[in-house]
Design goal:
single chain, 20 helices, 668 residues, alpha+beta
Length: 668
């Protein structure tokens, strides 16, 4: 028999003999390859690249591709590392029987080649079969017209094969290095070496507690909307570090503290359970921490993206209350009723052509800017991050003339007098900068404009446009990019369907943007339609939830893989413990009960910790989704609870399936 035939035969036999290790490895390879192919399929799909809102979808796909690369490398490296560690005895035996390391390397090479080709081919085939379903899901989420048909992305398949070929080559080189640097005797006895009792690392446990507390503190106390997005990743890093430290060092410290309690420890069941958990936690700390982090990632990604998607309609109704809103910026010296009517005239002509009456059109000047609260009712104009906290209001001002026309009232205000609405602490005066205004009454609800949502707004009615100009001059002292006074025109009607309204809005925008622009305008007219923004939000939020589901599948795959291999490794370790405990006088039922308690505590600890992480992250996550317009806290917490319950059911199901393999090993 030739060497090549011998190598092929040994490689095939080894894969079959170690199928309990290589079976999950093969499925993992196929799953990762399927995900890669699907992502490339979506990236190259012409429908995705040409659809309305394609920018959102392509951005999410690009972000998902980057995250997926890291996940695939990590998952495959973990699976490969576990398999090669479990085969140390077999590889050592080959060396003792006379095989040179070059021969062992050749056998490993053919095993790697078989796994790479079979796993990648199965993944690409599976990905091709479900890629259309995934595309339909994406189109359904963004409310795009669903098309039938099947297509295969040759470029995506080729890229997947190349990527996995490179990945398997790197894993093979790593395995080869591990085999070559160890002697056969060392490999043979690698899993028989005694393990010392882990030390109590108080400083590391305290460090983990501090870092975890710091991550939680960022979540609870960060209120600035801009800082929330920036500090989120810092909080995530702190929680990851703290979780690893607490699972590794903190668990040992707690268990040793329990051991010092003689009344608790010196009981048959507690004695063996606590002693066994000290070694079990020390051995499995890294895996348990990884499971906890992966579980938390699944919970966070699914809960937040589903909340965004479920709250889309509420966001549309709150942020876009008008069928159409047109807006344009006026220059400081161009604020007049004559200029306003000149801008509106062509818009109203188009509206009349579509059968709309003047009563269905509403126009007014608005000037709004952020402010910080100095004390009481003293407000300092501010721009940028200083005006983005939940306690910093937006001041929105309207002239008395526009207010009277909109509300039908006949308010007359003298210089320095205002009507106010929305103050947290009502008073007789209000100070903006150095100017004191006397509040002479309460204003009615202001007309809403599309996209004009603000979490905390104070509405003011001022005497005339001169007041708006003077306040804008105050803002120019803060920034060179101070906001301008804008003219708004709202359109609300039941006469036109969505398509006709869209055509009417387009015609209005064209009519309101002559060439060249009048001198009294400082910007082009911008049009905003409710239906258009509804589609934009569904495109954006649908892309978010698709990415969340996609990543959740990847993270869940990694979690299941770690759990399965963890059950295998603990099964072989507990089989030896099972025999030893029976030899020292414990009955088989007592031994099984002790090991079952240890396994259950270790297995469900990551799930409990993940739930704690989700609860601690909820304040920051709620602020993040509010940036996208979802302010319904009840909806957010409902999504968190449903996601946690669903993931817990899947987690228990995975435990039930993998525990069968564990108990079959222990009972041998």
């Amino acid at each position: 028999m030739s060497k090549l035939a011998l190598y092929l035969r040994l490689a095939a036999r080894n894969l079959f003999k170690n199928r309990q290790y290589y079976g999950p490895f093969f499925l993992t390879t196929a799953g990762c390859a399927a995900m890669c192919y699907i992502m490339r399929f979506l990236n190259y799909n012409e429908l995705v690249s040409t659809m309305r809102g394609a920018a959102y979808v392509q951005l999410m796909l690009a972000l998902g591709s980057i995250i997926m690369v890291f996940l695939v490398v990590w998952i495959m490296a973990y699976a490969n590392g576990f398999v090669i560690r479990r085969r140390t005895k077999e590889l050592a035996l080959y060396g003792i029987l006379g095989m040179e390391k070059g021969n062992i390397a050749a056998v490993l090479g053919f095993e790697t080649l078989f796994l790479c080709l079979a796993g990648t081919a199965a993944g690409v085939l599976g990905g091709a079969l479900v890629s259309k379903l995934v595309l339909l899901l994406l189109l359904r989420l963004i409310r795009f017209e669903v098309t039938l048909g099947f297509s295969f992305c040759t470029t995506g398949a080729a890229e997947t094969f190349v990527a996995f070929a490179v990945l398997f080559l790197l894993m093979y080189l790593r395995n080869l290095r591990q085999v070559r640097k160890s002697s056969p005797i060392e490999l043979l006895h690698s899993d028989s070496m005694g393990e010392r009792e882990p030390k109590s690392r108080w400083l590391l446990a305290l460090f983990g507690l501090v870092t975890l507390g710091a991550g939680y503190a960022i979540s609870f106390f960060t209120t600035n909307f801009l800082y929330v997005l920036l500090l989120f990743f810092a909080a995530v890093a702190l929680v990851i570090v703290g979780t690893h430290c607490l699972f590794g060092a903190g668990s040992v410290v707690v268990l040793k503290a329990l051991r010092k309690n003689k009344a608790l420890y010196y009981r048959p069941r507690n004695f063996t359970a606590i002693s066994g958990l000290i070694y079990r936690m020390n051995q499995n700390a890294r895996g348990l921490a990884n499971i906890c982090i992966l579980a938390t990632t699944v919970l966070v990604s699914v809960a937040t993206t589903v909340c965004l998607y479920a709250g889309t309609e509420g966001t549309v109704e709150r942020m876009y209350p008008n069928d159409v809103t047109l807006s344009v910026s006026f220059s400081d010296d161009g604020l007049s009723e004559e200029n306003a009517q000149a801008w509106e005239a062509p818009i109203r002509e188009v509206a009349a052509e579509y059968g709309l009456s003047d009563e269905e059109l509403q126009s007014f000047y608005l000037f709004d800017f952020g402010a910080t609260v100095a004390s009481g009712n003293v407000y300092t104009p501010a721009l940028g991050a200083d005006s983005q906290t939940t306690d910093s209001p937006t001041l929105t001002l309207m002239t008395a003339a526009d207010y009277n026309r909109v509300t039908g009232q006949a308010v007359t205000l003298a210089e320095g007098e205002v009507l106010a609405l929305g103050q947290k602490d009502p008073a007789d005066t209000l100070t903006i900068g150095d100017t004191v205004y006397r509040i002479v009454g309460q204003a009615e609800e202001f007309p809403a404009v599309n996209g004009g949502y603000s979490p905390y707004t104070i509405y003011l009615v001022v005497p005339d446009t001169d007041t708006l100009v003077s306040l804008r001059a105050l803002l120019t002292q803060v920034s060179d990019y101070a906001p301008t006074v804008r003219r708004y025109l709202n359109v609300n009607t039941d006469k036109l369907d969505a398509d006709t309204m869209d055509a009417c809005a387009t015609a209005m925008q064209a009519a309101a943007n002559p060439d060249p622009d009048p001198e009294y305008l400082t910007s082009r007219t911008y049009v905003n339609t409710r239906e258009g923004m509804r589609m934009e939000l569904y495109n954006m939020n649908g892309s978010f939830v698709f990415l969340g589901i996609f990543l959740a599948v990847m993270f869940t795959m990694a979690t299941v893989l770690i759990i399965y291999y963890k059950q295998l490794s603990e099964g072989y370790e507990d089989r030896t413990r099972f025999v030893i405990l029976q030899q020292v006088g414990m009955s088989a039922d007592e031994v099984r009960s002790t090991i079952r308690v240890q396994v259950l505590m270790v297995f469900f600890l990551p799930l409990v910790m993940a739930a704690v992480h989700l609860a601690a992250a909820s304040p920051m996550l709620m602020r993040m989704v509010s940036v996208f317009g979802v302010t319904n806290s009840q909806l957010f917490f409902l999504c968190c609870l449903v996601t946690l319950a669903g993931f817990a059911l899947c987690y228990v199901a995975v435990y039930a399936l993998t525990s069968r393999k564990y108990y079959s090993i222990v009972k041998r």
